[in-house]
Amino acid sequence: MRRNDRNGGRVEKRFDRMERNGENLRSIRWDQVTLEAFQKNFFQPASSVLNRSRAEVNQYLDKNEITVYGKNVPAPILHFHESGFPQYMLDEFQRQAFKEPTFIQAVGWSIAMSGRDMVGIAKTGSGKTLAYILPALVHISNQPRIARGDGPIALVLAPTRELAQQIKQVCDDFGRRMGIYNTCVFGGASKYPQESDLRRGVEIVIATPGRLIDFLERETTNLRRCTYLVLDEADRMLDMGFEPQIRKIISQIRPDRQVL
């Protein structure tokens, strides 16, 4: 019984620390901030997507057991050449021997490229990272370039360093030819190289919540330029007790951001 009490105490202390993490963040009154307008609808697919009939869309969704909720949801992208992505992305698909979009990509690209918020649920290995990273790259390429002292344009929050590093690899594969740079910040590693990247300026930050809050509190970076937010494995982050930290991070981001 004592052992259970001790373990329970440790858990309570851990969650208490997570609650306190971010106490020193400056509160932003977004209703008193003049926000610069930004564009987030870049959906310019092939005419075959725009002309896809509702019957054809429903057949694809039913056949693949896909459920979509929402109003005026754009038709899915069934083939890479229909996506409207830059040619180098199409070349990268071919280099990696991708044959056609996965289900989450087919449906997700249309929604994300339209600038809409989305909650996507898909199995591990379904290609969900590309479902949000490629629209992120297009989004970033259509915003003003970042300057020294600017924070990222896109932020991806992940529950673990392992997942964060996997996401970084995808960003590297598809972002380098666009001159879009990223960094990965997570606990359990030296802060110095992460801090150096943040101060130099990157368009994408992939982060675990605790380490990102550390840097925000120290004003190593900021989220004033962030207009594209991704919560990868959001349910897992909530199960791990990250909700207070996530809320504090989101409070630092303009309210009209796009969220996936």
From TrEMBL:
Keywords: ATP-binding, Helicase, Hydrolase, Nucleotide-binding. InterPro entries: DEAD/DEAH_box_helicase_dom, Helicase_ATP-bd, P-loop_NTPase, RNA-helicase_DEAD-box_CS, RNA_helicase_DEAD_Q_motif. A motif (Q motif) lies at residues 78-106. It holds the Pfam family DEAD. GO terms for molecular function: ATP binding; hydrolase activity; nucleic acid binding; RNA helicase activity. Its EC number is 3.6.4.13. The keyword Hydrolase applies. It is an enzyme of class 3 (hydrolase). It comes from the Eukaryota. SMART domains: DEXDc. Gene3D superfamilies: P-loop containing nucleotide triphosphate hydrolases. Residues 78-106 form the DEAD-box RNA helicase Q domain. PROSITE patterns: DEAD_ATP_HELICASE, HELICASE_ATP_BIND_1, Q_MOTIF. Residues 109-260 form the Helicase ATP-binding domain. It catalyses: ATP + H2O = ADP + phosphate + H(+). This is RNA helicase. It comes from Anopheles maculatus.
